[in-house]
């Protein structure tokens, strides 16, 4: 995506005619611009509740033209109440951004905070506290305004392209050498609230009004939180009516961060300094920062040319290849201080038990270092202890988060009720899903039996003629996430198929793979089942185990359900074994009903073909592992479906069988 041409303006103070005249000129000369953002007071001096002047009203009614779509904060001053009330219904390209928040304009993430700091309003202390901070046109922001913005910043996926405020951040020039901008009072200019927001938002550009001067500070970098440093360029814009004609407009061609390579976001430009807002913390962490080339650059006050190589940042940790990775001995750790060494990690987590492996991967999509680290203990009990005792504990000044290694790998972050990969409501048909029986994409000719909540269909690329899939009718991601009644019906179907295969002198083997798929509403649960000769049935467990071992995974045996135990007990047992309904996993089903289970940890990639390869091997037809080699013509499929229905007929589930 190419860059978006945008204009920024300082305080307009009610002279919209002058602003739009100036913008019109710039737009004709250097445009077209896609948007104009105004930071600083947009209305003239005076009470919010005053009647707006005719000149302002004409922009709302469309009689006067707004040359470039305009987005503003500073929604206070003479006539503000009436105009802000009228604007949402107006067709004029004039939009008040609001009190605070993050919005997207032409792909740019724009964060904003309207108003300025006012002690009584912000702290709720003092006589005028109650009167201030009311209404959309209040010149002062409240703790709620700031809290809302912080919450949206924390929830934001991706970068803040622009931060707009009506105030400069306090401490902007801390540590800068040389003359300060004329008229700037470092001790009193700006607010600490805005400084804190800059440190949190890490915006690429911070545009602010509020001082009677123009200043573009040398860019500064924020500490690496795992995806590299981030750089902010601050531009303070003068009010339009500045007596000395200081700059009040700023033009940028800005490509949204979402379209940029990660390296472009974490590159430190010439003359870049550390963030002035991290300095206090930096002093506390002097040792840590001494290792950061940015920090020494800061102390050298620009005497040397800045280094162009990347500063210290989180490194991947390879881990020991010879230690088999066991999800149950392993925890996932987040919010670690990046400067922590492997030795320090080992010592810290050693409080829970012996640590045998530590690893931190990179994201396969963009090569960035993952924000989580795996710590594996020598026993499962030690991992359990780490979850119980080390979660939220302080480690080198940060609260570390310790989570089970399997939880949430399917990315749903939800419990059983709403468990579903990808999106859409659980159980609702998903357009284009092959397995949703109601979907047009479903191949209904291959359906051999339909129960209350599940159905059996012939596999489209059969390994054997009786290769079938057991599938929930509704869109559910995984068998362990099924309702008890559906899981029970699945077990009845497996029993019926086991009996049918036995009549052919074969034994049932199968598998289920739950990987979170991002498309088509996420995974739709389906269990592959075939019948194999008894000798193959006997070596099935070993075949699955050795295929998994080749890929570096150890399968764990879950014994067959004991006599008298119900399907819900089995479901719960499986759910515990895979680490929850929102976990990704592979389950192999063996002839005696026992299971081999392996949940997946974050960053692990299960070989997609593994299940089919083992089934094809057990069926004595390894060449049929490839699905494509097995595709049949439609007329062959129809004949095969008829043959299977005849075979399965005597074993068909009886109506009402589940309703006991
Ligand atoms: Zn589906």
UniProtKB/TrEMBL annotation:
GO molecular function: RNA binding; RNA lariat debranching enzyme activator activity
CDD domains membership: MPP_CWF19_N (cd07380), RRM_SF (cd00590)
Assigned keywords, A-Z: RNA-binding
GO cellular component, as recorded: post-mRNA release spliceosomal complex
Residue ranges annotated for the RRM domain, each copy included: 329-407
Annotated spans, Disordered: 283-326, 403-424
Pfam families: CwfJ_C_1, RRM_1
GO biological process, one term: mRNA splicing, via spliceosome
Xref: Gene3D superfamilies: 3.30.70.330, HIT-like
Protein's name according to its UniProt entry: RRM domain-containing protein
Organism per entry: Edaphochlamys debaryana
Classification lineage: Eukaryota, Viridiplantae, Chlorophyta, core chlorophytes, Chlorophyceae
